[in-house]
Amino acid sequence: MASSRKPTTKLAAFMATLPLLALLFLSGALEAVVGASNDTSAAGASYTCSSGSMFLASQSVFSLDRYGARGDGRHDDTRALARAWKAACASPRPAVVLVPNGRRYLLKVVTLRGPCKSTVTVTVKGTLVASPNRADWSDRDRRLWIVFRSVNKLTLDGGGTIDGNGHKWWPHSCKINKALPCKEAPTALSFHYCTNLKVDNLKIVNSQQIHMSVEDCANVQLAKLSITAPGTSPNTDGIHITRSKDVWVTNCKIKTGDDCISIEDGTHKLHVSNVICGPGHGISIGSLGDDNSRAKVSGITIDSIQLHGTTNGARIKTYQGGSGYAKDITFQNMIMYNVKNPIIIDQNYCDKTRPCREQRSAVQISNVVFENIRGTTVTKDAIKMSCSKNVPCQGITLQNIDLKMQGGKGITESTCQNAKWRKYGSVVPQPCTSKYKGTVGLLLEFLLSSHSWSSW
Question: Which residues form the active site (predicted)?
Fold first, then answer.
């Protein structure tokens, strides 16, 4: 019996040391984490908990504060963000760049480059705010503020804010002060050559110019974004998309001084749904063909949109002299609230300091559907189709449209130039009737309402 009690005693002694060993282990782990927080080259903690969000143990977390950021809204934190990004991008396992909650991180121009070794998530809990000093931007980088370039599988999320400090820039715009030369201002958030990109649950406010630009990207998901600037702010487009494909924009609220969403050359397979827009200039394809350029846009679906007090609703705009095409476009399930131009195609668009000269060539507009669009307008011309004489609009479909004057203050009309169109169902106002007057006009209106198609 004595021999059997001896190993039991040793086991009991070993078990008694376990709490001490665990304490020593935890102490060492905490010491390592504290040491890492003082070492800006550290690989990052394996997990952390911030503002109620737990990061998984499989992720490395790189907080701006660990890289020297002050987060007081006064000191420059640009280097801290750049260093945190560099470490996260070099991480062999999924990484999180954390912008902590409750703090304001002042930034000048910064470009965060890939490719990265693994996936990177930038979790914005606090606020990234632009420097109020316009001299921090040179003529070379005036168009940019925060740029992500050549990154695969990038995610931005967190519910925080990106503040462009635009009120420091807007008074210097030639659109506000006609005596000033026209110069570009920074885009708050730019994505260049990114693939498999997700931007979710962010607030972008008061951008210097465009709020978000997606350029040369593929497989992009933009969701639950709140984009806000005063209706008088110049050129503050909400989301700008160009030379990109397979892009989804869903569940966003955009209130700006320019286009809520602007869709430019090289955009293919874009789907926009459940967006609330206004104030602003509406949702626009274009402008295309500027300075005799060639444009290619196709496969665009704009679905389930509310527009409140916007200058335009569903718009396609091109310059004279351009070439290429804008085709296979659908605007559907849209509600207009006191919109100035609910449906408009303008192939004589001109936004230059001098009048644009008349030219024969134009971007070909074809296979465009306006379907299930209803609401109110503040002008009589609810439908405007001003197309090129030499390159007429082809295959325009108007289906189930009901656009009435605000407060019932008159009858809406429509105008058409060089547009080949077809109507289905009830279309109010009748297409292309306002160019006709008197008895002949009434007869033509009756004939149009009795047939399913017509063209000019």
Answer: 281
Q: Is a pLDDT exceeding 80 seen at residue 29?
A: no
> How many angstroms separate the Cα of 49 from the Cα of each of 41, 56, 61, 140?
21, 9, 10, 40
Residues near 282 by beta carbon (within 8 Å), at least 6 away in sequence: 259, 260, 307, 310, 311, 312, 313, 314, 315, 339, 341
DSSP line for 181-220: PP----EEEEEES-EEEEEEEEEEES-SS-SEEEES-EEE
Question: β-strands 283-288, 261-263: how paired?
Answer: parallel
Average pLDDT over residues 273-302: 97
- 182 shares its domain with 323: no
- Annotated active-site positions, please? 281
| Mean pLDDT (the chain, rounded) | 87
**Reduced to 3 states, what is the DSSP secondary structure of residue 438?**
helix
How many structural domains comprise the chain? 2
Please indicate, yes or no, whether residues 217 and 264 belong to a single structural domain of this protein. Answer: no
d(CA 309, CA 421): 27
d(CA 43, CA 36): 8
Contact criterion met (CB below 8 Å) for 282 and 314: yes
Percent of the chain with pLDDT over 70: 82
Q: What is the CATH number of the domain that holds 151?
A: 2.160.20.10
DSSP conformational letter for 341: E
